[in-house]
Amino acid sequence: MASPEIDTLTQALSRLPGLGPRSARRAVLHLVKRRETALDPLLRALEAVAEKLATCSICGNVDTTDPCGICSDTRRDSRSICVVEEVADLWALDRSRLFPGRFHVLGGRLSALDGVRPEDLTIDALLRRIEAGGIDEIVLAMNATLEGQTTSHYIAERIEAFPVRVTQLAHGLPVGGELDYLDEGTLAQALRARRPVA
Amino acid sequence: MASPEIDTLTQALSRLPGLGPRSARRAVLHLVKRRETALDPLLRALEAVAEKLATCSICGNVDTTDPCGICSDTRRDSRSICVVEEVADLWALDRSRLFPGRFHVLGGRLSALDGVRPEDLTIDALLRRIEAGGIDEIVLAMNATLEGQTTSHYIAERIEAFPVRVTQLAHGLPVGGELDYLDEGTLAQALRARRPVA
């Protein structure tokens, strides 16, 4: 029954992560019933982002400026770079406000299964940033998966020759983690990396 | 850290039903990473709907044409009108494809608590549709709530004088409903409206 325009909008929304056909319909209904307060603002917001969308030529972040807000923020520590797999990881880390430096987005992880090789990631660009100088520390913040860690090791080896400190995120118990419920891999990591009680 | 444009888009999306701040962020990330396949299509779909959005002057449905697709569909039975509280109810009933007639959206329900009086709903417009003739049956499809049923009774009384059949949706056990889990109100309705086994 719905008009083709409304159908198309429902379909476009239902492809967003977290929205299925049912919730997309509810969202469309919400939008069409609230033109001034919901539909128009969303439309203007999308237009603004679509108009300016850019991939940062330095770090690979997606933003509305190039260089991105992080790379052009002079209050941030330009001497340390946190290397992540995806833009999503960059956003997650940045949201935590725990890392004061810059980032580098690899655009994926090495994967024999998916045929992702080093040249498919932005590893060379990372090496060029290090070569250009002014970098003290590279923080490898790959996912704690087999592929993430393989990528981490590979990059660590490639960086070895440069006079920078290479670190990686600690692995162990997550905050609030109960031993009883944790997988053996995490327990093994936590045990292996145990530290003296302060 | 995110640019103001991206922040604004995240906020606009997070106001949709079913999306919180977290899933809105994920949706934005999805959009900005897939410009051609996600962001642009959604933008065009929103534009198309925003451009044509209209409230049907006959039934109150929201659509991209006036009269709406249902009121202008000559294959539908124009002799029966299903009266609903909200556009959402119309869409839900229409999706089921079980009702072949037209609709009438009241725009709410009578509510002493919220100060909604008969003149705040489109009851007069419904009476004019009936007065205009050519209507055999009015199906009252209000919600099975106290306010919905009050509205239903009120409208039934107002229609009494017209030569139309007035019906309402059956109340009873929902499909798959287990007696053990149903509320007393539903059980009482089901018992009161019990029917001879065919």
TrEMBL record, chains A, B:
A GO term for molecular function: zinc ion binding
SMART domains associated with the record: TOPRIM (SM00493)
Gene3D superfamilies assigned: 3.40.1360.10, 6.10.250.240, RecR Domain 1
Single GO BP term: DNA repair
PROSITE patterns, A to Z: RECR, TOPRIM
Domain of life: Bacteria
Pfam family, one: RecR_ZnF
Swiss-Prot/TrEMBL keywords: DNA damage, DNA recombination, DNA repair, Metal-binding, Zinc, Zinc-finger
Domain Toprim: 79-174
Zn finger limits (C4-type): 56-71
InterPro entries given in the database record: DNA_Rcmb_RecR, Rcmb_RecR, Rcmb_RecR_Znf, TOPRIM_dom, TOPRIM_RecR
Family designation: Belongs to the RecR family.
NCBIfam families: recR
Function: May play a role in DNA repair. It seems to be involved in an RecBC-independent recombinational process of DNA repair. It may act with RecF and RecO.
HAMAP family according to UniProt: RecR (MF_00017)
Protein name: Recombination protein RecR
Organism of derivation: Stakelama marina
